[in-house]
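Review this today:
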Amino acid sequence: MSSGTLFLVPTPIGNLGDMTFRGVEVLRTVTLIAAEDTRHTHKLLDHYTISTPCISYHKFNERQQSTALVKRLKDGENIAIVTDAGTPGIFDPAAILVKEAITEGIRVECLPGATAVIPALAASGLDCDRFLFIGFLPSKAGERIKLLQTLTKQPFTLVFYVPPHKLKDILQDAANVLGDRRCVFAREISKIHEEYRRGHLTGMINEELECRGEIVLLVAGFRSEPASEQILEEMLSRDDLNRASLTDLATEYHDRTGIPRNRIKRMILTLKDK
């Protein structure tokens, strides 16, 4: 008898309409659904009229349950695993089961689907080509600062999950360690109160931010050397300097070149006077 397949099925992070057609189909056709919280998952199943049996699979029983689930998979059953929101295994239970299934030669498929990281990154306005997902920083300040220090020279956009009650502390530590970089605060993605705030780390510390819900913090990567003023002047001369305010243009070019905003403003005004 051939083994079954373990399906990792992402679930909506706030809007039930974000569930994919394929995700619904898989949940309807598997033998069993392993869920982080069966009560929470039953709301999703009821919404899509899915009657597949559901068992509990969470961080307190995942080792024990993984053994039992692998046996059922080896017996030919197809099983899906879901968490309360997002993709199983990304800061949620699933990794142990996936490793055991792979060790036993069982097919593992992860469906694409809901996540907070990619929407936050795509809508941030920061560099999306390369990014480094850190997840949650350590809760203790000393450990958090030590980890941030390892990221100071990373040229990629940094992406963090932030507990609401730690937001101000993390912004302060990030500003102290990484410098006053451009950053984006994304909250409650896909939900009614979805919000994006854009600025710089030191400025964000003093803003009145809504410290509730799921928060993603994105911070611009490290720039090794500021661009020369000659290069900046060439860039400005090719641009439409009336397309945005002086302050917005200065901020944009500061983020791209590292040259101080006041110097950029003077260069823009000089070019406009020519």
